[in-house]
UniProtKB/TrEMBL annotation:
One of its GO terms (cellular component) is ribonucleoprotein complex. GO terms for molecular function: structural constituent of ribosome. Belongs to the eukaryotic ribosomal protein eL21 family. This is 60S ribosomal protein L21. GO terms for biological process: translation. It comes from Hermetia illucens (Black soldier fly). It comes from the Eukaryota. Keywords: Ribonucleoprotein, Ribosomal protein. The keyword Ribonucleoprotein applies.
Length: 138
């Protein structure tokens, strides 16, 4: 079994349950309400084998697009974890401050504006560049 290519290979520690956390899953886990548009982290639970995510998605962040009685559908487009979650927290803080002041704030990202105009100073006279004609040496 040097390099077995099984579906769950290399997940010995990934899906194992923590120390003293083995056994039946509490009912509060199943009672959580998930809504479309929520941002969630994908975490596989080794105590329930049915419906586990593939190992590549373990620990990724995604957005819920579908809620069914037994599962939720999550879209994971790209690596967005640190930067995206930081921006979400910052935008929530800005929105809260704006509501207290009673003003409207733009939370969208703006592209970088063009650079300011300036003069380019030259040192000495400009050099004229021209191609050198090809000489066949035989």
């Amino acid at each position: 079994m040097t390099n077995s290519k099984g579906y769950r290979r290399g997940t010995r520690d990934m899906f194992s349950r923590p120390f003293k956390k083995r056994g039946t899953i509490p009912l509060s886990t199943y009672m959580k309400v998930y809504k479309t548009g929520d941002i969630v982290d994908i975490k596989g639970n080794g105590a329930v084998q049915k419906g586990m995510p593939y190992k590549a998605y373990h620990g990724k962040t995604g957005r819920i697009y579908n809620v069914t009685p037994h599962a939720v559908g999550i879209i994971v487009n790209k690596r967005c974890r640190e930067d995206f979650l930081r921006r979400v927290k910052e935008n929530e803080r800005k929105l809260k401050e704006a509501k207290e002041k009673g003003i409207r704030v733009n939370l969208k990202r703006e592209p970088a504006p063009p650079r300011k105009e300036h003069f380019v100073r030259r040192i000495g006279n400009p050099i004229a560049l021209a191609p050198i004609p090809y000489e066949f040496v035989a």
